[in-house]
Design goal:
The complex is a heterodimer. Chain A is an all-alpha fold. In chain A, helix 7 crosses helix 11. The radius of gyration of chain A is 23 Å and the shape is globular. In chain B, helix 16 links the parallel strand 21 and strand 22. Chain B has a 6-stranded mixed beta sheet, with helices on both faces. Chain B has a 6-stranded mixed beta sheet with strand order 18-21-22-15-23-24, sandwiched between helices. A 4-stranded antiparallel beta sheet of chain B has the order 2-1-4-5, with helices on one face. The radius of gyration of chain B is 25 Å and the shape is globular. The longest helix of chain B is centred in the C-terminal third of the chain and has 16 residues. Classes of the chains: A mainly alpha, B alpha/beta.
């Protein structure tokens, strides 16, 4: 199908394409209603929306990587909480760059621990990472029992500076495009689809799986820094919602929970969609208590749309490859004629 | 000196032996055939040599130096490259990426699509493959193209030890492969060629080794041996199992309980027509993956039937799920392939496992009455030769044989008269096997129609009234009475159709 219609159809059936479309619809509704109701639309409005979205985007991409690899990771909310309270309680006046590096290393280390249990210990990922999540959430309260503390001002101001949030999003998209085409990226997709085949091909499957857990952990660490900058202080419970929203963003972004398929860019727009929903509900004047119901319904709508396409794809892949028919290979070799 | 020296390989999976003191030596420039029945240990040996499976003991020497076992990388750097039977291709990567998976060329860390596709196209050209677009996703290719890709990937590594495990299972033009295998041999490679197809082995191989039950049982010269002799050695003549006597010939007017016409299931079963009469045990034979599984699962409503007609006791019936199968006419029940995963509720007692289909009948106001439940399970268990003392134990802790007897007892309790038995004797001990045979024969005598698949040909010969042989999703031959011999089944199962027609000629 080489027609224009075919190309449009392709975008709509692709998970990322659908996430982008869904997001654009919500943004149009939000911003047009916002301006017609005289509330004004300016760069600051978009800026604050993006600053709020950044931590969710980064954390959800970490979750997405693990899911593409065919595994599961619940620890994001725990890592973010610990990073947030650590920054607010002790790193408030440190060099911001050092804070970023340290916190990503901390996240990466937690990812390594998860990976060691899950990959080498062969324990169920959902149980291991649930345990890490609870431990880390508890640890965060021990470190900072009351919301307080400060975040390095450079981070707080930096993330709000013009074009910084947009810049980070562009960097994320470019980084994903490169990673997807890197060796590790290809192997990540391959493991999600068929770890046994990759093992038979002689590749170090476990090492690659560990690496992805570490990368995901480091991304949670970065998300923790970004959330701290957005929040400007420490709060051990502030990251709780990430447990569910990271998975929601991944699902809306069209990443299949069966592994081997998915996109960080889809997840990025999934996260943006997720945070645009309350804005739309607000301009429609939906009251506080019904907002939650409407929010849930919209998330369901976004997920169902995504699930339908992956369901259809599953069905297609269920049809097994046919047996060869003797005529099929005829044109392959020129020297076939000698066989009478 | 031999390039490959394997000695004393042992590999156990639980109680079952995959390799039992297996040893083999192969010289440079030699194409060695390895033959054996399904489960003889060929594929396990291949995986040991490739570093995929770590043996319990044993040694592999290549060019005199000891190979580190269980390390794929070590095997590869020693020059061992394998085209696997199950194919080691990744469905969501392209042909080119699969071809170069182990050494993807990168530029600044990024795998350059153009470089990969260019390099892959060059390799495909060199190996005479012109119809494969390097950019295609492997998951979309037909099996024959995947097989060719697997072979090109292996051959293009210039292996010192080239292992081909059933390389022509889906390959239409064997000449292409043979040419390249001979070229590799002429360059001094040592080739292990694993195949069921004896005609090919006669064409290609200089020497042969026969495996049975994880052991090396002998060598043969493919040019001097008759196929019958090799097949006899593969099957082993030591089998002296007592099968229950067949009842007098099934009367021609016995009602046909199950009939299919041009049945298709996806593209694994491609038009199978068969019928099973009341009181009859019909065997299904075939090498692995010829559509037997899909046939059974399709009939049981566990795989979607995509075409053809199923008639149950004379009525055309649509079977869309296992529950419908059970309720169709006299009822269709399946004993599934993977007992542990599909057949039992491991953490429930044997009594509960058996009584599941009767729970509704056994309960009052939703509460199961334990006394009658136990009594019923005991009766059903006795018919299936289940020792009474095991009834109270968790099924998961019983031996495979007693697990299977619980499954058979349950199947009988469903009251279904059409029994689909998919390899019910897999992995159970000989005496339990005999009891399973007798249970099946008793069911048939009591009016059941049994369709019985087994990977062990002697079982089919000993137990069945008729045997259908499947090859590539089609029933290629049917044998009855005296025609049912191991040779006849083996010959047709490997796609040697001439003996099938010969058998039918005799019949005429």
């Amino acid at each position: 199908m080489n027609t224009k219609f075919g190309r449009i159809r392709q975008i709509v059936t692709d998970g990322t394409g659908r996430a982008v479309i869904f997001w654009l619809i919500l943004m149009t509704i939000w911003l047009s209603l916002q301006s017609t109701q005289g509330m004004g639309v300016d760069a600051r409005l978009i800026q604050s929306y993006l600053v709020l979205a950044l931590p969710l985007i980064v954390a959800s991409i970490g979750v997405t990587l693990v899911i593409i690899m065919g595994q599961f990771d619940l620890s994001a909310a725990g890592v973010i909480a610990v990073v947030n309270v650590t920054i607010a309680s002790t790193l408030g006046s440190w060099n911001p760059l050092l804070v970023v590096v340290l916190m990503m290393a901390l996240g990466g280390f937690i990812g390594l621990v998860n990976g060691l249990f899950v990959i080498l210990g062969k324990l169920p990922a959902i149980a291991v990472t649930l345990a890490t999540l609870i431990i880390l959430q508890g640890l965060a309260i021990v470190i900072l029992p009351q919301p307080s503390g400060k975040v390095p001002p450079f981070l707080v101001d930096g993330v709000r500076a013009p074009f910084v949030a947009v810049g980070i999003i562009v960097v994320i998209i470019i980084a994903w495009m490169l990673f997807k085409r890197s060796r590790s990226g290809l192997y990540m997709f391959a493991i999600g689809a068929d770890p046994e085949a990759l093992h038979l091909s002689g590749l170090p499957v476990k090492k690659i799986q560990l690496k992805i857990f570490v990368i995901a952990g480091a991304l949670y660490g970065l998300a923790g820094v970004l959330m701290s900058a957005s929040l400007t202080s420490g709060d051990a419970n502030a990251a709780d919602s990430f447990l569910l929203t990271t998975f929601a963003a991944t699902a809306i972004g069209g990443t299949a929970f069966v592994g081997g398929r998915g996109s960080a860019v889809g997840t990025l727009f999934g996260a943006l969609t997720l945070l645009a929903i309350p804005k739309v509900l607000f301009v429609f004047g939906v009251s506080d208590w019904t907002q939650k119901v409407a929010f849930g319904l919209l998330v369901l709508l976004a997920v169902v749309a995504g699930a339908f396409s992956s369901l259809r794809k599953n069905r297609e892949s269920m049809l097994l490859a046919p047996y060869s028919t003797p005529t099929e290979g005829e044109p392959i070799t020129a020297t076939k004629g000698g066989n009478a | 000196m031999n390039v490959l020296e394997v000695s004393g390989l042992e590999k156990y999976y639980g109680d079952s032996v995959a390799l039992d003191n297996a040893g083999i030596s192969v010289g440079a420039g030699e194409i060695r055939a390895i033959v054996g029945e399904n489960g003889a240990g060929k594929s396990t040996m291949v995986k040991v040599l490739s570093g995929i499976v770590t043996p319990d003991s044993g040694e592999v020497k290549i060019d005199g130096s000891v190979l580190e076992l269980g390390v794929p990388k070590a095997s590869r750097s020693a020059g061992v490259f394998t085209a696997f039977q199950e194919l080691s291709l990744i469905p969501n990567l392209s042909v080119a990426e699969n071809l170069l998976i182990a050494e993807l060329p990168t530029r600044a860390g990024v795998v350059s699509r153009r470089a990969v596709q260019g390099k892959a196209a060059k390799i495909l050209r060199e190996w005479g493959v012109r119809d494969l677009d390097p950019g295609l996703m492997v998951g979309q290719l037909p099996l024959s193209a995947k097989q060719r890709l697997e072979l090109v990937r292996t051959l293009s590594q210039n292996p010192k030890i080239l292992i081909l495990d059933e390389p022509t299972a889906a390959l239409p033009d064997t000449d292409w492969l043979f040419r390249h295998v001979r070229a590799a041999r002429d360059n001094g490679a040592c080739v292990l060629y694993i195949s069921h197809k004896l005609a090919e082995i006669g064409q290609l191989c200089e020497s042969g080794t026969i495996m049975r039950n994880g052991k090396i049982v002998g060598d043969f010269s493919p040019t001097n041996f008759s196929h019958d002799e090799i097949i006899s050695a593969m099957i082993g003549r030591s089998i002296s199992m007592a099968f229950p006597p067949r009842v007098a010939p099934i009367p021609a007017d016995a009602p046909v309980l199950l009939k299919t016409t041009d049945l298709t299931v996806g593209n694994r079963v491609r038009g199978v027509t068969l019928q099973v009469r009341e009181g009859e045990i019909v065997g299904v034979a075939g090498l692995e993956g010829q559509g037997q599984r899909e046939l059974f699962y399709g009939l049981a409503g566990a795989s979607p039937v995509t075409g053809g007609i199923i008639e149950v006791a004379g009525t055309a019936t649509k079977i869309s799920n296992p529950r419908k199968a059970l309720k169709a006419g006299p009822g269709i029940a399946l004993v599934p392939e993977e007992r542990k995963r599909e057949g039992i509720f491991a953490d429930l007692t044997s009594v509960t496992n058996i009584s599941v289909p009767a729970l509704k009948k056994l309960s009052v106001a939703g509460i199961i009455r334990r006394g009658p439940e136990r009594k019923l399970a005991m009766e059903a268990g006795r018919d299936a030769h289940m020792p009474e003392e095991y009834l109270g134990r968790d099924v998961g802790r019983l031996s495979g044989g007693n697990q299977q007897k619980s499954v058979l007892a349950r199947t009988n309790l469903t009251g279904a008269k059409i029994l689909l038995m998919f390899d019910p004797t897999r992995g159970i001990d000989p005496s339990a096997k005999l009891e399973v045979y007798s249970t099946l024969r008793t069911s048939a005598a009591n009016g059941a129609a049994v369709l019985f698949y087994s990977t062990e040909i002697p079982e089919l010969v000993g137990l069945c009234d008729r045997v259908i042989v499947m090859y590539q999703g089609v029933a290629v031959a049917e044998f009855e009475g005296e025609q049912i011999t191991e040779d006849a089944i083996m010959q047709t199962a490997v796609g040697n159709a001439s003996s099938a027609t010969a058998a039918q000629g005799e019949k005429a």
